[in-house]
Each structure stands twice: as C-alpha cells, then as structure tokens.
Amino acid sequence: MLDFLVGFFGSYGYAAVFACLVLCGLGVPVPEDITLVSGGVISGLDLANPHIMFVVGLIGVLFGDSTMFLAGRIFGYRIQKIKTFRKIVTPQRFSQIQRKFKQYGLGLLFVARFLPGLRSPIYLVAGMSHRISYITFIIMDGLAALISVPVWIYLGYFFADNLDILMTYVHDVQKAIYLVLGLLVIVVVFVILKKKLHSKINQVASDTDDNNKI
Question: In which band, very low, low, confident or very high, does the pLDDT at 42 lie, cut at 50, 70 and 90?
Fold first, then answer.
C-alpha cells in the first residue's frame, strides 16, 4: 500500500493526497495514517513541500470528517436507508456508539481520530444525534488532527529514504497510540466509577441522616 501511494502521490501531488484523505473520511478502506505517511515520503523525496503537505493533510482529514458529520446532521436517521451508510453504521453499531457518547461525551470525538474503522461511524452518529454543534465537532476533531497529521507527515518526511525502517516506526507509533488510548480509557473509567461510588456513599449518608431525624 505504501509503495503504491508514494508512486501515485508522486505523480499527482497535493490534489491526490487531499482526495485520498477525503475518501478515508468517507469510510473508504484506505488507511489514513499510511496516506499521510505517503504524503510525507514524497515531501522527503523533494516532490512536495512538507509544510504545505501538512496543511493539505489537515484540511483533507477535516473535510472528510466534516462530510460524515454533516451527512448525519442533514439526513438524520434517514441516512440508514442508504445502503452505503447502512454498512458504515449498522443499527447495532449505532446503539453502541450512542451509549458511548452518553458515557464519554466529547472525549469520544477526540479519541475517534485515532481509531481506524470507528472514526467514520462515530462522526456520522455524532451528526445524527443533533447533540453536538458543528463548531464543537470541528474544534474537537481539529485538536486531535493537529496531533495525528503532523506526526505521520513528518515521520514520512524524515524517513523517506528507507521505507523499511519507516514502516517499523509507523507500527511502533501505532502501538504507542493504542497504549496511550488504553491508559486514557482506564483513567476515564476509574474517574467515572469513583464519582459513582462517592455519589452512592453520599446518598447512603443522606438517607441515614433522614432516618435518624425521624
């Protein structure tokens, strides 16, 4: 995949990178991270400017993500009648994502950028829910993209001369991202459980005081 994208982007430049990233945002099974890395590689081969590639990459991912969010916002639940979108968000997945939104709130939007395969369904459901404004969505998505996009672009740029070493680093970074996300989930779950425990303790204490007064 990397070799193909590097060759393709090398021939068609920024427009090809942008188009591919938009397709990634629409749920097409092309890895976004490899797409960005490939854009970085052609920059490292002096076929593009890495800083311009960063801007193109950032706009591309935000445009693709926004398309999914706005499609959900505009069409709502009717979008599930469209075969393509029904494959992306099955009724079961829709229910699961709705529960996650209630549990984790806006944090889920931020984390979604680092979850290939779940990113598009989460953004689509976020739009369908009408609970999140577009401004809020683009801020959360943009903050996450400001982390992911430069990491992949400049990784490809600095290791463009050795694709084997580059792919090793790509896998290492992917593992590090999943590790950090895993730790983040553990912390969030701990905080939620702690709040629930304190709430129950306070409720028990309140009930005890009421009984004593009686």
Answer: very high
119 close to 88: Cβ distance less than 8 angstroms: no
Complete DSSP assignment for the chain: -HHHHHHHHHHHHHHHHHHHHHHHHTT-SS-HHHHHHHHHHHHHTTSS-HHHHHHHHHHHHHHHHHHHHHHHHHHGGGGGGSHHHHHHS-HHHHHHHHHHHHHHTTHHHHHHTT-TTTHHHHHHHHHHHT-S-HHHHHHHHHHHHHHHHHHHHHHHHHTTT-HHHHHHHHHHHHHHHHHHHHHHHHHHHHHHHHHHHHHHHHHHHHHHHHHHH-
Sign (positive or negative) of CA dihedral 182, 64, 142, 81:
negative
Mean pLDDT of 138-149: 92
Q: What is the pLDDT of residues 150-163, one digit of tens each?
A: 999 999 999 998 88
pLDDT tens-digit readout, 4-20: 898 899 899 999 999 99
**pTM more than 0.85:** no
Angle, CA 142 vertex, CA 38 and CA 54 arms, to 5°? 30
**Which of 119, 110, 106 has the alpha carbon at shortest distance from 33?**
119
- Lowest-confidence segment of 16-30, 56-70, 101-115 by average pLDDT: 101-115
